[in-house]
Every structure is written in structure tokens, then in C-alpha cells.
Amino acid sequence: MSPITASPITDLSSAAASGQRLLHWQIAPYLVPSDHSYLVTLLLHSSLNAKQVFLRAEPDNEEYLLPMTLTSAGAGDWLSYQAELPLNPAEPTTVYCFKVVTEDNQLWLDAAGESPHMPMREQSFKIVVGVAPPAWVPQQVFYQVFVERFNNGDPACDMAKGAYQVRHQGPVKAKPWGEPIDGDNPNTEFYGGDLVGVKNKLDYLQSLGVTALYLNPVFTSPSVHKYDIEDYENVDLNFGGNQALAALTDDMHQRGMKILLDAVFNHCSDTHPWFNRWGTQDSIGAHQGKHSPYYDYFTFMDPNNPDSEFCWQGSKAIPVLNLGHPELKAYFFDAPDAITRRWMQPPYNVDGWRVDVIHMMGEGPHADNNAKVLGQMRQAIKETNPEGYFLGEHFFENTRWTQGELEDGAMNYYGFALPLRAFLAKQDVNYHPHQLSAAQFDAWLRQTRSRTPYATQLCQLNLLDTHDTARFFTLLNEDEGLMKLAVVLLMTYPGVPCIYYGDETGMVGGNDPYNRACFDWDEAHWNHSLWRHYQQMIALRQQTPALQAGAYHTLYAEGDGFVFARFDAEQCCVIAINRSADRPLTMALTADFMAALSKAGQWSLLVGEGINKDGVITLPATGFAVWDLS
Question: Which residues of this protein are catalytic (predicted)?
């Protein structure tokens, strides 16, 4: 079948081009810090015939138009302008954008791209000083482990059949590894996964290229998923207890690996001694009445009704905690041995926290003073380890929390997973039909990048799927070609990648609970082509600093074709994909972007099957390629 050919790009204003007559990125040499200011460089295409060029700043929240000076003719048809940007002395965030005046009009540039008018402040370029995410995070490849279903390393820890009753769901069941999940009662089924099992598979994970783990909750809980915690001070004995966690973290740190635990502080289990709905604890819980010392840890809609507690989305198993209560504040954040701090100290030394439903935590039932509560948790983390990673779970838009002063990064559903799902799997988060062209996909990505400081962009946790979603391979109807495209984007797009356990072997599964099946360790059942692809793309990312912390620029986004560059002062990589399942695709790229970077030389193919000839890229159906232009 003949290839689809895109029209050559000659108009620099075309959305499918490198695309702009104004260029600026928040890396050296375009942004260079000094004591109280930054030297800012703007590249301007000579076709604009600019009469005046300004750097717009707000050092005291008022507009200043700072004239920019032409410093050189630049490369190709690009002119280089510079100005000193004063930092805002009153707050951590300094915003800026650019204004260019021509003979009869004007053009602006902010983090969202070019605009014919003054842009909104929230889309301005942002510099955050005094606070910074951990330097180690962008260098990692994370792997999410749902502990109970990953590997059984110590059968002595296995659940005993009928050991206890899980609320109204009946007695717990001990099932053989790999037996199908009972969808009617999944939270009572235990297969024996534990922390010894995770430790025993560190060699495997390192052979894949994984450098960091994010563990789903490990603390004592009656359920399989353990988001209903009844004891924050002890690792569940079925996972091996505290000693098993200490042994795991010690081994990981000796290997140079990092580990995050899951913080479920918005709510606890109704079996926790603080609540004690079922009377299984030796405590007077809040459910027993107002005379309980823990009554004000929760919010009751009707003080005379012990079953009127405010719960997470109406789930009676997990009543919401009032984190404004001084005893809870001390317990979780402020005390020297507060839960947040304790697990980051010896002998565990975990490297940070992934915080469940972080936007819902508050003083009372409705996320009251959410930012205040999160500030307390951030302080606890950073005082314990200034390089601790504070990661928030947000299923939707998260930029309110990711401006640098609260979270170091978010689980990037909105800024990566959801647009990718629409682009490749043609559905939204609710599994409704949702189809995006490459241009629409690019616009969604650009919108979310524009509202997030650059340093935070690099620490967003990018993902394809998790324990809360259907597996991406299942959403793609097990289309291996599309899955490989997804992995390419996961390993090359700004942010830190995270793999959900088993995705690399081709595990399938619909929504919860079927996305939480046992890892199949029989290699005869693996998709080895997919596994090797994961390994190859992880290695490429680990060997290429520009893919970890480099700037981003879209080169082409039209129809099924998507091409972008990641680059720093030393390297430039071009990543291209073709979504079409039945047609090759030829895309002609403008040379102006490469000229602006002085990267018009040899293209070296790193992975994939693409062909480049004089800036014209050809990819096979469902094809991809990554080139090095360094």
C-alpha cells in the first residue's frame, strides 16, 4: 500500500511544523541563573521583521516590559535576543513571557506557544526558586508492585484459609498462585505475594532496567489491596512484617535503587482501633459513640447515628480522617516519630511517598485546608530527607498541586495517560469512545505542560495503567504494535516512567479486580518480543540524558503521525511514531528548528525502522524510530 505523504512544511506558523517563529526553552543556554536573576535567551525568526522585542516580567506582580538586546545573528535564519529576568523577591515563583512588536502587529510567546495577544498568567513560563523536586527522580524508571500478586517468596507468611472475616464479604480465602480471580468477592482472595517475593525478584527487575519501585500499601489491613489500613505502625504480617520491609529497602539501596511507599492518610479502615465498627479491636472506637477518645478523628453527619460517618465516596469500609485534629496531625506529620517520618528513617529509609487521593485530604470531610495539610506532610518529608519524593495521586487535572511548593510531581494521568489512551486506544477514562488526531493529542499534552514548571514536568510520574485501570494492552485489544508505540512514548516523553507489574510480559486484564492478577513467572507464557522492547527502550532512556531531563519540542503532529525532539546542550533526539495500522507514513519536517539548534548534521538511528532523508521521515505501519542528532 502506498505511503501517506504529508505536505512539505514551508509556513513557520503551521501547527504541523516545528511550528513557531519564536523559540525558548527552560534549559541552558536559553535560561541561565545568577544570584538574583536569570539570563533569558529568545530565538526569533528573521521573517518576523521585529521592531521591538520585550521580556515581560512581574517581579512585584505588576507588568514590566524589559527590552531584549539582539546579541547575535544566530543559526540559519534565527536571531538571538537576551535580557536579564529579575526574580520575584516576595514569592518562590517568577513568571515571564515574550512580546514581539512588528511594523503593524504583535506576537507573544508563553509556555503554551505563540499567541496574537497577551497570554494568561497560568501559562507563563515559570521559575521556582527555594524549592525543587529531588534531583534523582528524572533519572529513574519506576515499577509499580501490587505486592499480594507479584511473587510469593515466603510461604510461611501465607494467609490461612478462614483466618478472619472481611466485613460482610465472608472469610478470607487462600488460593493457589495464578488461579483465576473471583470477580464477585475479590478482596477476600489471598495468593501469598509478599515483600520477600519482591526482594527475590530484584535481579529480574534490574535485568529489565528498573531502578525504583512504587509499592501499593503494605501496612496491616484486612483486605487484599490494603487501602483500608488498620495499623500504620506495622507492615502486614502476610507481607512479612517490618523486618521484611527493612530487608527489602536495605537490599535495594545497596543496589542503588529507590523505593516509594503508598501513604493512605485520607481515610483508614473501619476495623482500625480508632473506629472499630465491628468490635474486633480492644478499643472504644468512634463507632462506639461520642465517649470514644477518637470520636473527633472522624466526622459524623448525625451525632446520634454511629453509622453516619463521612466515608470516601460513600464506602463504609474507609471512613475519612479529620487531619485537622491535633493528635492526627502529630501522628502523621509533626511528631519526631510521625508515620511520614518514621518509615523514612532507619532501618527502612524509604525514599518518598506516593499519597493516595492527595487532593481529598483535609481538615474535616470536604478537603478543607487541603494545601495546609499537604504543606505539613511536605515539611515532614523534606525535614527527614530533603531529597524525599512527594508524589500525589490525581486522576484528573493536577496543576493546582504541582506548582513546586506542594508536590514534587503527580501520577500523570491527565497530562500523559489519558491523552495517550484517547490517541492509541480511542477511549477515555470512563471507557467511552474518544478519538484524537495527532494534532489534538499534541494540544492536550502542550496544555498540561504549559501550566507546570519545567522542573516539575520532569518529575511527573508517567504511566500507561495502574491497579485502578484496565491494563493498557487489554485496552488496545492486545495490539502489540500499538503497545510498542505506547512504550516508546512512555520512555521518551518528559516525566519519569512507571511500569505496572507484568505489563512488560504482556499481561492482560480489564478493570479491577482483573487488572490485579498474579504475575505469571512461567516465561513460556511471556510475550518476549514485548519484553525485549521494554528492555531496549529503558536502556535507551538510561543511556540518554536528553531523554531524562532535556527540553521538549513538537516537530510534527498531524493525522496518525507524531514527531518530537528531546534535547539539551549536548544531545538532540528525534522521536517519531506512526499510529496507522495499515499504511506507511511520510512526514516532511521543516529544517528551521534543527538550524536553530545547529543540529543539521548526521541522523543516527538508535531504535526502530524509520528512514530519514533530508528531513523527510518515513515510518512503516505502526512504526517508530528514535534518532540521535548529536
Answer: 356, 393
Find residue 299's DSSP bridge partners. Answer: none
| Domain range for 554 | 4-12+550-628
Mean pLDDT for 205-229 is 98
Q: Which helix (H) or strand (E) is 281 found in, with range?
A: none
- CA–CA distance, 363 with 101 (Å, rounded to integer): 50
**Stretch (H or E) spanning 392:** strand 389-392
- Residues 607, 570: one domain? yes
User: Do residue 8 and residue 55 come from a single domain?
Assistant: no
Q: How far, in Å, CA of 139 to CA of 496, rounded?
A: 7
- The pLDDT tens digits of the residues spanning 375-387 come to 999 999 999 999 9
Residue 100 lies in a domain: yes
pLDDT bracket for residue 33 (50, 70, 90): very high
**Which residue from 97, 142, 98 is spatially nearest to 122, judged by alpha carbons?**
97
Q: Under a CB-based contact definition with an 8 Å cutoff, are residues 275 and 289 in contact?
A: no
User: Which CATH number belongs to the domain containing residue 90 in this structure?
Assistant: 2.60.40.10
Is 542 exposed, middle or buried, given 0-12, 13-18 or 19+ CB atoms closer than 10 A?
middle
Task: Judge if 88 and 107 occupy the same domain.
Answer: yes
Among candidate residues 15, 188, 246, 9, the one with its CA nearest the CA of residue 113: 15
Which of 128, 143, 158 lies at the terminal end of a domain, its last residue? 128
Contact 214, 156 (CB under 8 A): no
* Contact in structure between 222 and 206 (CB atoms under 8 Å): no
Do 8 and 85 belong together in one domain? Answer: no
- Residue that has been written with the C-alpha cell 504480617 in this structure: 237
275 closest CA partner among 317, 227, 326, 315: 317
CA neighbor of 514 nearest in space, from 191, 188, 187, 183: 183
* Per-residue DSSP letter, 415: I
Instruction: Tell whether 8 and 91 lie within a shared domain.
Output: no
- pLDDT tens figures, 190-216: 999 999 999 999 999 999 999 999 999
Percent of the chain surpassing pLDDT 90 = 88
Distances (CA, A) of 35 to 93, 126, 455, 549: 15, 17, 19, 23
Name the pTM for this structure: 0.95
* Residues carrying an active site annotation: 356, 393
Q: Which of 534, 462, 532, 535 is nearest to 497 (CA)?
A: 462
The region of weakest confidence among 385-389, 558-562, 602-606 is 602-606
Q: Is residue 341 part of a domain?
A: no
DSSP tag of 320: B
What whole-number percentage of the chain has pLDDT above 70?
Answer: 96
Residue 540 lies in a domain: no
Residue 434 lies in a domain: no
